[in-house]
């Protein structure tokens, strides 16, 4: 897949995982399941989840938990790939 095709697919993804005030634990299994079924998964980190940390830090932590890579963070969203 070319880089432009890949970038376009990532850009067009809908958010399918939402991280809220309960943090990363409740979404860990859901992200893991979704990554087993598809190449990329986009997650949104709500303000209540971020607290005193950044989207990038939370995304890296979540990626480590599900053995995935953070492909991109933008604003309060992150795209994961396994």
Describe, in plain words, how this protein is organized in 3D.
With 82 residues, this protein is α+β, with helices and mostly antiparallel strands. The chain has one domain (3-81): YhbY-like (Translation Initiation Factor IF3), CATH 3.30.110.60. The chain has helices at 3-12, 25-37, 47-50, 55-65; strands at 15-19, 40-45, 69-74, 77-81. A 4-stranded mixed beta sheet has the order 1-2-4-3. A hairpin with a 2-residue loop joins strand 3 (69-74) and strand 4. The longest helix is centred in the middle third of the chain and has 13 residues, at 25-37. It is globular and about 35 Å long. The two termini are 16 Å apart.
Give the secondary structure arrangement, pairings included.
Blueprint: H1 3-12, E1 15-19, H2 25-37, E2 40-45, H3 47-50, H4 55-65, E3 69-74, E4 77-81
Parallel strand pairs: 1-2
Antiparallel strand pairs: 2-4, 3-4
